[in-house]
Design brief:
This protein is of the alpha/beta class. It has twelve helices and 13 strands. The protein has two domains: about 10-130, Elongation Factor Tu (Ef-tu), domain 3 (Beta Barrel); about 140-380, Rossmann fold.
């Protein structure tokens, strides 16, 4: 084995089952097996950056080598993402190894190993103060978008479920101009061609390239604003909500369809979705708190964010939006959406059954949505002058 290797080193792989020892030590790890790219890298503990699918880069600790403390001799590459509590098995993980912290060695006890791991984490956090995460690769975002388009085209059951949601959204709109913020792959615009579609990435279906936190439109320019699966991607969601309040005309509506965290959806999202569910997060609620947030590259996601904003922090959120008030909320998607496999797994239901199952799913959501819904439709309306 060579003694030195040039860093940083970037690799990509799918998380495979491990022995679960990291979780028992208070530091759960994602096992990437034995990547060929590491064949010449010295065994040891490293720090750097990692991300799940297209999510933001996170600080990570990695161990490359055998678990000598437990008597093992076969080397494996294991990664711990600091601050990430989602399920990782089967997910795609990108890793950028930046710095070697120490060599692999055996410890006399699990307690001694935990003490060393705490010291390793402190060193990694010191490293993060001076070394920024990797810059976003636009080709990666384009590839992820293309993958979602391909999945959308080959899954009629998924399209049918979304079409039902789009009809619900359309029923909440008032007459007039409609703006969609964060249009993604352009599905809602295909359903409702008269909307003005915006996104941060330029694409043929995007009418205006715009940041949701700084909309380039005049006050009162639109009668409706639609956001589908976009609010939970905003580091500063109140900036967008204040912008929506400004851009809406009096009596105009903001219609949001977002992931919603219930006991059932928490389990589903944690086990099947790459995006994290961080119910302990504290979103910035005031301009001062927003200004204090560091500027970080890459995309952000927390599927719990809409739930937090409109439950735990609802009063504080509405206090920042004096012209908006909630007029409608509806639980959606208890069972049918998971049966489609979403954008990650094969469909378990044929599209011809979606209409019948939709009725059953709606009935389920109306009765037990508080405990079982995966989505919620939220509608805010702007006050008219007195």
């Amino acid at each position: 084995m060579v003694q030195y290797m040039q860093l940083p080193l970037q690799l990509h792989g799918r998380v495979v089952p491990g022995r679960g020892r990291g979780k028992g030590l208070g530091m759960p790890t994602a096992n990437l097996g034995q990547p060929e790219a590491l064949a010449d890298m010295p065994w040891g503990v490293y720090c750097g950056w990692a991300r799940v699918s297209s999510q933001p880069w996170r600080l990570m600790l990695a161990h490359w080598g055998p678990a000598a403390t437990f008597g093992e001799t076969v080397p494996v590459f294991e990664v711990h993402l600091l601050g990430y509590d989602g399920a990782l098995q089967g997910k795609e993980l990108s890793v950028r190894v930046e710095r070697r912290l120490r060599a692999t060695r055996s410890f006399p006890s699990s307690a001694a190993l935990r003490e060393q791991l705490a010291q390793d984490e402190r060193q990694a956090r010191e490293f993060a103060v001076t070394v920024a995460p990797p810059r976003e690769d636009p080709t990666y975002a384009a590839a992820h978008l293309a993958e979602n388009i391909a999945i959308w085209r080959r899954k009629p059951a998924l399209r049918a479920v979304y079409a039902g949601w789009y009809r619900r959204i359309s029923r909440q709109l008032i007459a007039g101009r409609t703006l969609e913020v964060g249009c993604g792959i352009g599905n809602f615009k295909a359903f409702k061609p008269d909307v003005v579609a915006t996104d941060v990435h330029p694409n043929p279906w995007v009418d205006v390239v715009a940041d949701a936190e700084a909309l380039p439109f005049d006050d009162g320019a639109f009668d409706n604003i639609v956001g589908i699966d976009m609010l939970h991607h905003l580091r500063r969601p109140l900036r967008f909500l204040r912008e929506a309040q400004r851009v809406l005309s009096p009596g105009g509506r903001l219609v949001l369809l977002e992931p919603w965290i219930t006991p059932w959806s928490f389990l589903v999202y944690r086990l099947t979705h790459a995006e994290p569910v961080e119910m302990g997060a504290t979103p910035p609620l005031t301009p001062a708190e927003e200004a204090a947030l560091p500027v970080l590259p890459g995309e952000y996601a927390n599927q719990a964010l809409p739930t937090l904003l409109f439950t735990k922090y609802r009063a504080a959120v509405l206090a920042q939006l004096p012209q908006l008030h909630l007029v409608h909320g509806q639980y959606l998607a208890c069972l049918l959406y998971p049966l489609t496999g979403g954008f990650s797994y094969p469909a378990l239901v044929p599209s011809v059954l979606v209409p019948a199952l939709s009725a059953a799913d709606d009935a389920c959501a109306s009765v037990v949505g508080r405990w079982c819904a995966l989505r919620r439709l939220v509608v805010l309306e702007k006050d008219r002058p007195q």
